[in-house]
Amino acid sequence: MNVTESQYMYQQLGISEEVWEYGQKTEARLKERFREFDETAEYNQLKVIRAMQENRVSEACFNYVSGYGYNDMGRDTLEAVYASAFHTESALVRPQITCGTHALALALSANLRPGDELLAPAGKPYDTLEEVIGIRPSKGSLAEYGVTYCQVDLLEDGYFDYPAIEKALNERTKVVAIQRSKGYQTRPSYSVEKIGELIAFIKERKPDVICMVDNCYGEFVERIEPSDVGADMTVGSLIKNPGGGLAPIGGYIAGREDLIENCAFRLTSPGLGKEVGASLGVMQSFYQGFFLAPTVVCGALKGAVFAANIYEKLGFPVVPDGSESRHDIIQAVTFGTPEGVTSFCRGIQAAAPVDSYVTPEPWAMPGYDSDVIMAAGAFVQGSSIELSADGPIKSPYAVYFQGGLTWNHAKYGILRSLQSLIDDGVIPIEKLRGL
Ligand SMILES: *Cc1c(COP(=O)(O)O)cnc(C)c1O
User: Fold this and answer.
1) Is the Cβ atom of 101 under 6 angstroms away from ligand 1?
2) Residue 292: CA atoms inside 13 Å, Cβ hemisphere, count?
3) Crossing angle for the helix pair 17-29 and 283-313, to the nearest 10 degrees
4) Which of 104, 190, 348, 363 could form a disulfide with 389 if both were Cys (CB 3.0 to 4.6 A apart)?
5) Cβ of residue 126 lying under 6 Å from some atom of ligand 1
6) pLDDT tens per residue, range 169-185
């Protein structure tokens, strides 16, 4: 396709010449970054293929199994594939794990007993875990079962307060929970290497402690995973990275055999464990999604870096910045005004393959203390490996965006968001000239 043909298509989809040109220039500057992402994807693609070959994945793995699901070969083989890819003894990968929060709640509640303590050595965990732990009182929380919670806040630079962590460890500390991605916080997302240093520090002082890593949004961003640096349980959601956009539901926990067994007993029932839980025909999407995940994550990373560079040059604060190394697929952009947040999200929505004609409005979402606007034109409801954005309507008026099943869609979505900000008068068109 020559330049004019491609530009014409963009024009048909609402992208003006100025925005398109700015996009082309920005993309041209990112060649080297993109090549690095491609190389990581290549490595991780081979890792997944090897895991599938080692475990002799066959067509029979995609069969529909209902009822109790005894001898559900597709399910059992997939769990072996995850264990191979994450280099763990075992894994639990199930459609009955409904989302990331559920997977994390399961990993914690299965391995903590009354009188035990959960330690968060790296500050406050993800919002939805507050109710799981009982930081915000909630029915069925760990607190209700007599599990106590201890938190060590981060230093100013967003990294670990080692002396305070050492002090916080005690004879009741049973599980340590570390979150790789920053979520909605302003701290950095952690590299797997940094997580490994933290785990090593903790295990030197208390070797029997169980280290759990919330790996949401981190899978396949690097060549190694937390399970490669000492995490006893690595946990995530299949409607994020490892589902590759195809898994319609699900979560995973990969780790030590005895801990995963506890998780299985908690998910189904004591005595039953992994033996039950029919896969109900979703196995093909789980396998195929896992197979595609390294490439999908690569596209999402390109989109995140592209967006960082597009908005950074226009003078908006971006986290991570345009040149930093990446440890998850989330990009934050601060617009500083409610109009900026709304306009950005409307642009992302307008670029979607599904529900593109819908105009998102801010609303009072349960669990949030301000109105939130969300853009999600997804094939799978709420899927955030698909191009999606959300922004709380409160200072500093930042949007968090992520995903894109393909780099091409991510690029179009970001250009469409910029067009929307220009059309709504938030960014004067003159600002693009000369950039
Ligand atoms: C998304 C996310 C979760 C929760 O996952 P859900 O599927 O939304 O329940 C937990 N931790 C982190 C860091 C996340 O990004």
Assistant:
1) yes
2) 21
3) 100
4) 348
5) yes
6) 999 999 999 999 988 78
